[in-house]
């Protein structure tokens, strides 16, 4: 039998040999966050030389619009003297740098009120963020250590990396999908029956053999955040990929060097993600006392925030190639065939929030996800 290839593979194989199979949620958590060998602890995943590219790396317009969104929400919150501006998973710091640049002059009062906090577990990315973001900040391993007070939270492609449980409908109830190891390879297997799993109404339509996904970690994070927003006021904006409604089916995928990979191969060296169940998280937030807005397609959200107007401003001057770059970037953000429909925006606010957060207005007649 050949030993598994990566250090984390050997560690997980030994764990399974000693303790038995582990759940898919435990597998994802180990692959991404193991203190010594987890993917997000040790690699620089973002950009052309990494494994994937996020919206802030595609176009500066994305961060500029999110910065303007935060400034307007701050004003709608009553312009608190100090606002904790928190980003979850800041990557290389590109999004926050663009956000701050966009508000530094047009919204000076908001800019001065910002107390910046970044939630990041990757030490190398922290170093990059410190160079990219021209602002004093505090770094955290979790949002739980952000000091009390009004806050605005931004999470772009953060929720999709949180562990999910995969539950399989069987003749004897719901059984949790596990990962086992034998003959030098990892494989899926079925674990024990799960009593009273946290399911959405849509999941109950599953038939024998169907898989549904639920994230205890994401639910807990959103529930705790909603309670804090209810008690201390604030808002949150999550942008990620996933359906508008809860559904049935497995979505676990691995990415390496911008290509699909096997989620059970090279643990710790490939990115693992799942589609976000926005409807479930919105419901959890409401149960915890916050108000939820959306989800709505990213294309609609960014267009309502003024993406096309901003793109036109950026293309007034510059070379033809520079104009093409701006237009291509804007198109990728909103086009149905790119990120416009697959990605969604979800906002949380205090239940007595005065007004509607920017971009979440009721749809106008015949409004669809726009093409750039």
Q: How helical, in percent, are the residues? A: 25-40%
As a whole number of angstroms, the C-alpha radius of gyration is 21 Å
The whole-number mean of residue pLDDT values reads 92
Across the major sheet, the strand order is 4-3-2-5-10-15-14
Distance between the terminal alpha carbons, to the nearest Å?
A: 53 Å
Major β-sheet profile: 7 strands, mixed
Supply the CATH architecture of the domain at 41-163 and 215-242 and 277-349: 3-Layer(aba) Sandwich
Count helical runs: 13
The structure class reads alpha/beta
Low-confidence stretches: none
Strand coverage percent: 15-25%
What CATH calls the topology of the domain at 41-163 and 215-242 and 277-349 is: Rossmann fold
| DSSP, total strands | 15
Helix-strand pattern, N to C? HEHHHHEHHEHEEEEEEHEEEEHEHHHE
Instruction: State the name of the first-level CATH class of the domain at 41-163 and 215-242 and 277-349.
Output: Alpha Beta
Would you give an account of this structure?
With 372 residues, the protein is an alpha/beta fold. The chain has a domain at 41-163 and 215-242 and 277-349: Rossmann fold (3-Layer(aba) Sandwich). The protein has helices spanning 7-19, 24-33, 39-42, 55-58, 60-76, 94-103, 108-113, 123-132, 216-232, 278-287, 298-304, 307-314, 320-334, and strands at residues 22-23, 83-88, 114-119, 137-140, 151-156, 165-170, 173-182, 185-193, 211-214, 234-241, 253-256, 259-261, 271-273, 291-297, 343-349.
Summary tags:
372 residues; alpha/beta; Rossmann fold; seven-stranded mixed sheet; five-stranded antiparallel sheet; 13 helices; 15 strands; 35% helix; globular
């Amino acid at each position: 039998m050949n030993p598994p290839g990566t250090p984390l593979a050997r560690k997980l194989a030994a764990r399974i040999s000693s303790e038995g199979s582990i759940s898919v949620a435990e597998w994802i958590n180990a692959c991404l966050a193991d203190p010594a060998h987890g993917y997000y602890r040790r690699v620089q995943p973002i950009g052309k030389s990494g494994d994937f590219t996020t919206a802030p790396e595609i176009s500066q317009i994305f961060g500029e619009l999110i910065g303007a969104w935060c400034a307007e929400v701050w004003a709608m919150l009553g312009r608190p003297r100090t606002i904790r501006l928190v980003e979850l998973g800041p990557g290389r710091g590109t999004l926050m740098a663009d956000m701050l640049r966009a508000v530094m002059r047009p919204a000076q009062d908001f800019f001065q009120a910002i107390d910046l906090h970044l939630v990041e577990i990757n030490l190398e990315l922290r170093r990059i963020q410190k160079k990219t973001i021209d602002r004093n900040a505090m770094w955290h391993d979790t949002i739980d250590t952000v000091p009390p007070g009004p806050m605005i939270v931004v999470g772009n492609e953060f929720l999709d990396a949180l562990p999910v449980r995969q539950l399989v409908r069987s003749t004897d109830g719901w059984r949790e999908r596990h990962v086992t190891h034998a003959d030098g390879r990892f494989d899926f297997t079925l674990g024990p029956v799960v009593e009273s799993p946290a399911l959405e109404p849509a999941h109950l339509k599953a038939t024998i053999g169907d898989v549904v996904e639920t994230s205890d970690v994401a639910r807990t994070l959103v529930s705790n955040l909603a309670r804090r927003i209810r008690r201390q006021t604030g808002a949150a904006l999550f942008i990620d990929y996933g359906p508008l409604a809860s559904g049935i089916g497995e979505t676990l995928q691995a990415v390496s060097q911008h290509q699909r990979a096997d989620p059970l191969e090279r643990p710790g060296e490939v990115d693992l993600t799942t589609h976000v169940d926005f409807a479930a998280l919105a419901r959890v937030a409401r149960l915890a006392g916050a108000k939820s807005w959306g989800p709505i397609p990213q294309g609609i959200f960014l267009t309502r925030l003024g993406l096309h107007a901003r793109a036109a401003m950026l293309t007034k001057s510059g070379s033809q190639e520079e104009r093409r770059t701006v237009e291509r970037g804007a198109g990728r953000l909103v086009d149905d065939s790119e990120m416009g429909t697959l990605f969604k925006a979800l906002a949380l606010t205090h239940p007595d929030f005065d007004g509607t957060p920017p971009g979440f207005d009721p749809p106008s007649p015949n409004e669809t996800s726009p093409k750039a």
